[in-house]
Fold:
Amino acid sequence: MGLFIADIGTGSGCIAITLAKELPQAQIFASDISAEALVVARRNAEKHSVCARVHFIESNLFDRLSLAGARYVLPSEGPASLFRIPEEPTRFDLIVSNPPYIGRREEPSLAREVREHEPSVALYGGEEGYEFYAGLIAQSAERLRPGGLLILELGHDSLPAVQPLLEPPLWTNVGVTNDLAGIPRVISAERA
Structure:
């Protein structure tokens, strides 16, 4: 059996699709709170011929990924999109997420094309922008196998609020990767 991977807040599906292409033995659970985003993500997965291994589920974080035996079908999709969650809640080898991380207080400073055309649920992670991480990290700790990895994209100023959430005894081997501008952009941790 291959790897079990969760992409939480998949949006257009680019992370899930890339992982499916790079890891052909992996089964990927791509969840999003937005049914509209999942329709786009599924269309993108079809373009890249990975639909058989990327399972799209409308869910707030892990809420619907933990309902044993539940069935999900995307709006306007046929029987091929029907997918059964395993009887036991899935334990993942890898959880990735590019969560909403912009603070509501930053809304007036966003470019107009972002502010007016991107769904707010995909942009705002709370008043400060980092509030979303606490629930995501807590639920990820429950759903990762021991030794499993959590990889999260960070907002430009969220590292000081997020890094303390990844401390022992639950987490080990925490690493931070900067983007090309030197801003901490990705944080990873191993489930102890």
Observations:
- The longest strand covers residues 144-153.
- The chain has two domains: 1-90, 99-192.
- The mean pLDDT is 86.
- Residues 7 and 15 are 7 Å apart (CA to CA).
